[in-house]
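Appendix B, example 12.
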Amino acid sequence: MIAFYDRLKEKGKNGKVIVCAIIRKLVHIIFGILKAGKKYSPNYKPAFA
């Protein structure tokens, strides 16, 4: 998330915009975990990455 924050900050985004973008990203991650019914793995790397 720090790299995501830094990338948005370099683009000149406002602090509130950055916070909302990070919250949205976390909500998507949480929803995916709940929908899949799997445990969270901080070391997970998607196949397409």
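The first helix runs from residue 2 to 10. Helices lie at 2-10, 15-36.
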